[in-house]
Amino acid sequence: MSDEPNNGVLVGNWTYRSFLNDPDLSTQFNDLEFGRGTITIQASAMNEFRGAIGGPGWQLQLKGSTTYGNPFTVRFQGTGVVGGEEWIYDYVGYVVRPWPNGIDQRAAIVGSIVRTIPHASGSGGTAPAGVVCSFIAVRQDDPDS
Q1: Would you call 115 helix, strand, or coil by DSSP?
Q2: In a domain, 2, yes or no
Q3: Structural domain containing residue 121
Q4: Tens of pLDDT along 78-98?
Q5: CATH of the domain at 72
Q6: Of 30, 19, 91, which Cα lies nearest the Cα of 60?
Q7: Residue 120: inside a domain, yes or no?
């Protein structure tokens, strides 16, 4: 990963997974899944963050900011209409620095997500606002290829 002061190191496709923040070690790993999809980060002006996140049946447009430092920080909001209703989620993430002795490393962003407004759940109820989860995003493509 480059130390260049632009979001070019972030541009591309990232595999996104989010997890419920359940501290119970007996909870099965698959039961922790909150969401999954692909984040596509677009080239944008210095300090801006733009892109989209989505999966089967849903997509949100992403808009926010990038702060350069150690680590890089991204803060963005995802908005869109899914199933006829508005969805809004807020994200903060930190770009993980590569290990000097790492083998076959992939760039990663780790962070937190909050559901900003409620929306219908897949089970016929309401997915309430304020639910906080953790996420990881792993680069799918090599920016140097």
Answers
A1: strand
A2: no
A3: 7-139
A4: 999 998 999 999 999 999 999
A5: 2.40.128
A6: 91
A7: yes
